[in-house]
Write a structure and sequence with these properties.
CATH topology: CNF1/YfiH-like putative cysteine hydrolases
Strand order of the largest sheet: 3-4-7-6-8-12
Shape: globular
Radius of gyration: 17 Å
Order of helices and strands: EEHEEEEEHHEEHEEHEHE
Number of strands: 13
Structural class: alpha+beta
Helix content: 10-25%
Distance between the termini: 34 Å
CATH architecture: 4-Layer Sandwich
CATH superfamily: CNF1/YfiH-like putative cysteine hydrolases
Number of domains: 1
Number of helices: 6
Largest sheet: 6 strands, mixed
Strand content: 15-25%
Amino acid sequence: MSEQWIKPSWQNHSAIASLITTRDGGVSQTPYDSLNLGAHVGDDEHSVNRNRALLTQHLPATPVWLEQVHGTDIFDADHWDQSSVPVADAAVTTQPQRVLCIMTADCLPVLLASKGGEVIGIAHAGWRGLAAGIIEKTIQKMKQKLGHDMEIQAFLGPAIGPESFQVGQEVKDIFEQHDPNSSRAFKPCSEPMKYWADIYQLARMRLHSQGVEQVEGGDRCTVKESCFYSYRRDQVTGRMTSLIWIKQL
């Protein structure tokens, strides 16, 4: 049986809704089959637009699509004009039914929500963004929106797993320069100067450093599970989308 949606469970959080797509349920042809939502990967434009329309049927509003560049810019979606495509790798909002989203195909989607449901955020955390502080900056932006500290919880969506993510010594060094304890997230490979990196563990460490203790998800591998798009596995492939919004209560 195909798995079209992943619906994260937010403990004690009736104000927040979220959805993560898989590659099933769309109209795109091989190698983008079938629910490719990325307009930048070489897929037929009509197919992508149709897939986005199919997705939007399950949402309260059109998502705030971002042009992601593996950076650390955070878009304040409260001020979105509902037509532009902001260049950013994270977004935050306090507006009910303003749907935030990011696209991934191995990178880590990080969904964030204040415990009271007043503000939400979402971040595209590939290793470069993660190392550069995309999670910390998104949380700081969320706190700035309300003007005070708050309890935040997180959900880690599907990403490249710890047995599939091989990196070089330079990546390990970058994380250890920020926090020597990051070494726990790297295991040596059989190849010299190569390591298996646990992006989920690295993200949890960054979240914990910001006081985020309730972290769910982080147990799916995009490379190993064929229901997901994986750039590392396939090179030419589509993109999944992770989405979060505040319900209209």
